[in-house]
Amino acid sequence: MTHSTAKPLIALSPLRFNAEWINSVFTRANRVWIGFSGGVDSHVLLHALVNQISTAQKQKLTVLHVHHGLSANADDWLRHCESIAENLAVSFVAERVQLDAQASLENAARNARYQAFQTVMADQDVILLAHHAGDQVETVLFRLLRGTGGKGLIGIPQERQLGDGHARLIRPLLMASKADIEVYAKQHQLVWIEDESNHDERFSRNFLRHRVVPVLTARFPAMERNIVSSSQRMATDYAMLSQFAQQQLAVWCNAFGGLDLSYIANKPVDERLFWWRHFLQANGVSLTQAQLESVEAMFSAAQDKQPEFVFSHGRIMRHQNAIYLLPPDEGVILATLMSGVRVTRSFDCISVSGNGCALKARPQSESLLMTNGKTRKLKKWLNDEVIPSWWRDHLPYVYQGDTLVAIGDLWCHPHYSHLNIQWQVSAILPFPR
């Protein structure tokens, strides 16, 4: 979806949306959703938008409430939100979510909320969220205190892709202050809910909001406006820097997506970290600075080493002096092969035209008979064929009885050359050769 370059707001007091922006959003989107907690921010966003769109546009609008189940009042909040949507004659959907018990409460609630968005939204849909300038200030300060890099200083983006498809998330109130929002709410006599957890200063954001930001604002009255402005400039600068980095990485990466380390090996360590960071970000991976430094040191090791860095949803490994981002490892699937029947596994699929064959685990000690009558140890053959280390256990070792008769279509026992083996590697797990 091509997004509009028009700014969402044309006035802050009272809040008024840009008609060009409204038309652009509703024209391009199949459906427009509003994330609606029932709090003052999302209520103002909903009310202001409904009062500035056409009847036809209103038919494409749906209010989405996520029920986290964290508060004893959660069911009452859901009913309140449904009532507001009904009074405004807008479609309403509620999603109940389960939180990840392993994550912090703030992160678990946020992750569940965004997962709910992706569950209900289709390609070309748009969801509007009510983050405002105060939220931006809290985000930038919070990330600074955690030692963020340049990307983190961008803060909350006004617009971004949601998930892997073409759905988009837009925050039209990001330039509005909390005061602007509250003035609108009082002028229109809106009724909203107050989430008691917003006053719990055990949560870092609440501590910043109630204890830190007021003190800084008293000393620096223009702080909010200046931080929001700085984050916008940082977003522009970082986007251009990322574009440059991706253009260069496209030259340095091979056809299998591996980054050739020879291009960065002789650069200063800070530059190497820069290229590591952008290579990983291009593949949807964001590591902390400490993790990044650990990875860089690990893969600067001697070439005869086979380092592996495992993180929450993948692995980083080296092959032929190139770095590859791999999916999490999975158990090897073993199976009986019926003649002509394709077997699909985690990272490949295979079929054999012959009976009595089976896929077995990689043998610990095996000699392969070559067509010239000589034998070669399996380990030496794997090295000679330059098979990536992450593929060696996952290769399809085809047996008849106790005899290894083929390894995919890479090697076949000369006495079993009549077997017709069709083997296809999945793009999920790179197989550079």
From TrEMBL:
Q: Where in the cell is it found?
A: Cytoplasm
| Main location group | cytoplasm
Domain remark in the UniProt entry? The N-terminal region contains the highly conserved SGGXDS motif, predicted to be a P-loop motif involved in ATP binding.
Residues the record lists as binding ATP: S37, G38, G39, V40, D41, S42
Q: What Enzyme Commission number(s) apply to this enzyme?
A: 6.3.4.19
| CDD domains named in the record | TilS_N
GO BP: any one term: tRNA modification
A single GO CC term, please?
cytoplasm
The family this protein is said to belong to: Belongs to the tRNA(Ile)-lysidine synthase family.
Stretches assigned to the Lysidine-tRNA(Ile) synthetase C-terminal domain: 357-423
What does the protein in this record do? Answer: Ligates lysine onto the cytidine present at position 34 of the AUA codon-specific tRNA(Ile) that contains the anticodon CAU, in an ATP-dependent manner. Cytidine is converted to lysidine, thus changing the amino acid specificity of the tRNA from methionine to isoleucine.
Report the catalytic activity: cytidine(34) in tRNA(Ile2) + L-lysine + ATP = lysidine(34) in tRNA(Ile2) + AMP + diphosphate + H(+)
Named from the GO MF annotations, one term is: ATP binding
Q: Which UniProt keywords apply?
A: ATP-binding, Cytoplasm, Ligase, Nucleotide-binding, tRNA processing
Protein name according to UniProt: tRNA(Ile)-lysidine synthase
Query: Gene3D superfamilies from the entry?
Result: 1.20.59.20, HUPs
